[in-house]
Amino acid sequence: MNSVLITGCNRGLGLGLVKAFMRLPEPPQHLFTTCRNVEQATELTELAKQHPNIHILQIDLKNYDGYEQLVEQISATTKDAGLNLLFNNAGISPKSVRLGATKLQDLQHTLETNTVAPIMLAKACLPLLKKAALANEQQCMGVKRAAIINMSSILGSIEANVEGAMYAYRASKAALNAATKSMSIDLREQKIMCVSLHPGWVRTDMGGNNAPLDVPTSTTQIVDTVCKMGASHNGGFYQYDGKQLPW
Ligand code: NDP
């Protein structure tokens, strides 16, 4: 794998994914990581000092105007090799409330961050992904060629929803899943793999202290699973260990 872009890498699963990719026997030649505030991303900055293949790009993903510059920065480094993997990880989850307490602002903010931003970033990265797909024509569908992984959640599964509530978060991830499916169809011709992934319930700021999985367990398995995925996974919804999930 030549290059990977992961969003939201200053903490939680994003930071864990960076470490998991670096633990691979052959880490990506270029690991582009995003965060909103580099000065506060101390652990990520420390990692980047130790590993010159880690690049830190500062962006608030709700600033769509910044995507062009982000793509230019990646393109200037990877040139004709493009981008092999876009990992849309950054996300938010407002407090879980029932319908009567649902706030318009939470709905708008969450849909923008969890759905609009990953779709628009995938659109912005498309030329880079297509370049990678072309440069790795001999490779089968998968991350060695070109792929988009959208970090979803089992809470976005309509079939698995038995508890209700969480309008903003559930709707944002269900919509992201719908987008994954469309991407997988639109990009099938270029053999760019598109998958929705549930990381498990993980102990992060979002997952809370009661979650059963720790970050290294989830992210190590995610990277292992993602590296093994191929054409049969395109347009599907899976969890960290490769188990298929219901839409
Ligand atoms: P955290 O809350 O620990 O981290 C979220 C990350 O997203 C942070 O880096 C945060 O940056 C970033 N982020 C949020 N909004 C923006 C924005 N507008 N622009 C740029 N970056 C942004 O969450 P997790 O690590 O737990 O979650 C990562 C992903 O996994 C999310 O998509 C989440 O929905 C999903 N997920 C997590 C589960 C869990 O149990 N933890 C379960 C299912 C899914 P900043 O520090 O600047 O806020």
From TrEMBL:
One of its GO terms (molecular function) is carbonyl reductase (NADPH) activity. InterPro entries: Fungal_SecMetab_SDRs, NAD(P)-bd_dom_sf, SDR_fam. Keywords: NADP, Oxidoreductase. The keyword Mitochondrion does not apply. GO terms for cellular component: cytoplasm. Belongs to the short-chain dehydrogenases/reductases (SDR) family. This is Sni. It comes from Drosophila busckii (Fruit fly).
